[in-house]
Every structure is written in C-alpha cells, then in structure tokens.
Amino acid sequence: MRSERSYVAGLYTRLDAERARVKDEYDAALRGNGGTAVERDVEVRTSAKQMKRLDVADNGLCFGRLDTLSGDHSYIGRIGLLDEENDYEPVLLDWRAPASRAFYVATAATPENMRRRRQFHTRGRRVVDFTDEVLGRPGGGERGDAALLAAVNAPRGDGMRDIVATIQAEQDEIIRLDHPGVLVIEGGPGTGKTVVALHRVAYLLYTQRERIERHGVLVVGPNPAFLNHIGRVLPSLGESAVVFMTTGDLVPGLHVTAEDTPEAARLKGSCKVLDVLAAAVADRQRLPEHPLPIELADVTVRIDAETAQWARQEARASGLPHNEARAVFSEIVTWVLTERAIARIGRGWLTRADREAWEHLRTDLLKELADDDKFTAALDELWPILTPETLLAPLYTSPERLRAAGADQALLRADGDAWTVSDVPLLDELVDLLGRDKPADQAVERERKAEAEYAAGVLDSLISREDLMDDEDHLLAQDMVYAEDLADRFLERDTRELVERAAADRGLDLPARRGRRGPRTVRNGLAGADAALPGPILHRGRRPRPTPVGGRSDIVGHHAGALLSQNE
Hints:
This protein is an alpha/beta fold. It has 24 helices and twelve strands. The strands form four sheets. Strands 3-4-2-1-5-6 form a six-stranded mixed sheet, with helices on one face. Strand 3 and strand 4 form a beta hairpin. The radius of gyration is 33 Å and the shape is elongated.
C-alpha cells in the first residue's frame, strides 16, 4: 500500500508540474509577446484547452495497474503522462491507449499475457485501498469482481458517472469497435447503452482526434433533463469539445414554443410528409393568371403563362434546388422577353443576320431588365427566393396551400411561426429542397472584390510620381503586399474552435453530409451500468441531384418557335 500511495503521489506531482507549464504558456500567450494576433489567439485557446484537460484528470487520475507474466507493470489512468527525463517513457497510460486494452478485456480464461489486474480505490488524491484480480487461475484468497461490485453498489448521485475504472470486456469491445460507419447500441433500460456510447465518443476523440474535432461531435438527447443527467460524463473523461442539444435546438436561430397534437405529430413523422414538402415547394413555382407587363424604355413586354410554363419546366428539369433553379427560370424568361423586344424594336431595320447588332441590343435590354423593379417583382411572384421558415409557416396557416400540397388539414394552425419539435426535421429537409440563396452569395463576393479594388487604390496612393521617375531602385508597397492580402487583413477572423461556434449558433448554414454506410447494431445486454446514444455520428448531406438536362442552345431550339411567334 505504501508503495502504491507513493507512486500515485508522484503522478500527481507530475500533473501539477504539467499544469504549471501549460499555465505559463497560457499567460505568455495572453501577454502577446511576438506573433500575429491570430497566432496568439490560437495559442491562448490551445493552452486553455490543455488546461481544461489536465483539470478534469485530478479526480481519479490513476485507477489501476496491470502486471504482465514477465513481471513488468503499467499504470492506467484518465490521461497519459510521460517521463521527459527518461526518454519519454510512459508513467501513466491513457485508458484509451491500445496498451491499456488488456486492463478491460483480460479474464481468467483469456488473460492476455497478464498476471494480475489491480484496481485502486481513492479519496481525493490518496489511495485508500486496492483490489487485486489474478488472471488465469486465481488462488483461494484472491478476489475477482470486488471493484465492479463496489461501483455497482455505490450510492447514486444526481447525474450519470463515467465507468472508466470498471469497464467490462463486453463494453470495451463496443467502445473500441473498429467500425467506421454508424453504430447503433441496443438494449433494455439500465443496460448501459448511453454510458458505453459516451465512452466510445471519448475513445474516438482519442484515436481520431484531428478528423473528429474538425467535423465536431454532437450529442442529441430527447430533453434538457436527460442532457443534464449525462452531461458530466465526457468532461470527466477529459473531453469538453462536444455539443449537447435536443432535437428542438438543431435548426440555427429556431425556438420551439409550441407542442403538436398527437395527430399532427404523427403526420409530420410519416414518410408521406416528404411528398407534401416537395409539393409545397412546387406550389410556390407559379404561372401568371394574366400576362405581367414589363415597361422598358422603348417597348413593353409581357410575361405570359406559356413563357413561365416553359421556364418552370426547364428550371425543374435542371435538378437544382428551388433557390438555385431560379437562375434557370430567370434565364429562360429574360431570353424570351429580349427576343420579343428586339424583334419589335428592330422591325424594318434589324434582322437576325446582323448578329452583332442583335446581341448588342440584347445586352442593353438585359441591363435594363436587371434594374427594373417590376421585373424583379414578377420573378419574386413566380419563383420566389424561399427559406425553410418562409415556406413552412404560410403552409401551416393556409387551408388552400395545404390542399394544394396534398397535406392533411390536421396540420392547420393559427400561428405558422409557433414551431414545434416535429417541425425541426421538416425544416432541415427543406434546406435540401430549397438550397442556397445564390444572389446573396454573389453580393458577398462583389463586396469582397470592391474591398480589394479599394486596397489596390490605397497602394497606388503610396507611390509618388517622384518614386517612379527616380532612376534608383526602390522597394515599393506593391512589392511587399498584394491588394487582396491587404483587404483580407481587415476581415474579422473567427478563431473559435468548431464546438464553440456550434454552441453559439446551434449549427451551420447547410446540413452536413448523410452517412453512406448502413448502421451497425450491437445488442447490449450489460447490467450494472448507466444508460445511450449511438456512437459515431455521421453527418447528413444533400441527396444526389439529377444531371442537368442538355445545353441552353438545345432548350432554346426546342421551344423558341412557338413562344417567339406570339404577338404582344
């Protein structure tokens, strides 16, 4: 006992020294001695993350020891510690390291070349007792499962505890399972599904940290009470880069304020609702009841039902999401309108044989249409830019729109914006169906180019005429920095880690990728542990889109005759 207490005390001494070193690095990064602001910010966050990892290791730092048949022994704990003065030999193995696996899977029947497993019982930093389990064929006075029985019989607290010191072989097999796809853990109440899944998350963060932290870890629970119950397990294992949320939190900026009737919840949870959503999107792609006049400088053109029908047909055939397909719709409409306008303006003096004059006139008309508010309003009426919220909320409040989408009237409600938990997956599905708002993205790109042009002007102003006339060589501003780089320096950099950004905005603009692999199911019949979410979570993404149909010249050739022959 004295020897073990001394060794564990030495581990805590190393832990304190490591904390002091990381604390010094953190303080130096805060003082900002050298490096850019971004580099210092990264150093501060890296050091803070390391400090948090070392802080959670204080409770139960070392909980076991393995003795091999050859007489060597190794200590197992929450984190790994190395002896820097002895060629970085491990003095404490992380429980997730491959060398620690025998601590959990070795049995009397399969000892894994181990002679003994020792499990420590600690109070604070002091070892108060230990239990030895002789592997192979134990003698009469040796105990086997005392550590597990002690953990099972220990009084329950307010939240779920980690089981890192008492993981059983069957649980360890699930935690370390080499399966890259979705893993589903099944079992009855109280069989340890949740706690095993959370330990698997910690294991994956240890073995694939760079890849998984880049994509992030999301733990989804049925309600906040459940998340509070399990929320301390991963931090106690040294992993804090995880986001916990309920299904009602999955859409950024959305607040669940209402509750569905059982019938409405059942309808929203059925596969038929996918057809309803697709029909609701199609219903917003309208045809004009009467021709919509667009007054240009020299002529008035009209968007009639035939033109809109052709444009709608080609936009839908492109296979693009609704918002992105608007560009196809607009292209067809503008082509038809400009062709009609050119034919009327050039009547008597302009023919198609004069392609240069014809296209020059089209360019002027396109610019005029782009600046015409009535034309933009007509496009918005026939093919509006939609968000999931602006499509779903009006659908819920309109019996006519529900009927047009083939939806049950049980979905009708007075307040369309009173979101429920069952609305969250529907809003997420609509992100796929609607797509991005390309005009908004293009506006951001135009702003970036404008800033680069301004920066180029600033650089030019730094050069005097005398500098250019001087015969001597000079190092000019343009020789040291590009205009784009100068503009980028004034962009606000977000150096937060992924998990911090996710916790702040509750997700990303677009859904992540759907996993392609099928789920792997493990039936967990383990008793004596707490409860359960699937382990690795693969991200959700867009469904495959059909390949766009043909080129624009093929489309024009197919429909042009009928549409352009119409009289205005």
